[in-house]
Amino acid sequence: VPLQASGGGLVQPGGSLRLSCAASGRIFSINGMGWYRQAPGKQRELVASIASGSIRNYADSVKGRFTISRDNAKNTVYLQMDSLKPEDTAVYYCNAIGLSTMTTTFDDWGQGTLVTVSS
Asked: Measuring CA to CA, which residue among 111, 63, 62 is closest to residue 91?
């Protein structure tokens, strides 16, 4: 299913940003949604995820600073990022896993949104 991410940009260290990612198209159910990031020269890593039962998982590097939430009615996942650090600079990708019909699964990615933390 298509995933549209938004909310990236340039922010100073200590600042905040809120990312959004909306899934659209044929969706029967979404089991989990998450945010990953990839910094230049590094592998893509999990930042945070939220399962259908609202179970949240965070990378150690963002615990206490980032909050993931989800609006099931809108098929949208959010990432509130506070106390941003230069090392948070990366392209952030959203991911969604679920069913497009009762028997067809999907595991799709958004297009990525750039977050730059710099003074």
From this structure: 111
Note whether 81 and 65 are within 8 A (CB): yes
CA 73/CA 93 separation, integer angstroms = 21
CA gap 65, 111 in Å, rounded: 24
Number of H helices and E strands in the chain, helices first, is: 0, 11
Which residues, including other chains, have CB under 8 Å from residue 109's CB and lie 6 or more apart? Answer: 3, 93, 94, 95
DSSP label of 30: E
Q: Phi, psi (5° rounding) for residue 72?
A: -65, -35
Q: Give residues with Cβ within 8 angstroms of 14, minimum separation 6.
A: 83, 84
Q: What is the mean pLDDT of each run of 10 residues along the chain (119 residues)?
A: 95 98 93 96 97 91 97 95 98 95 92 96
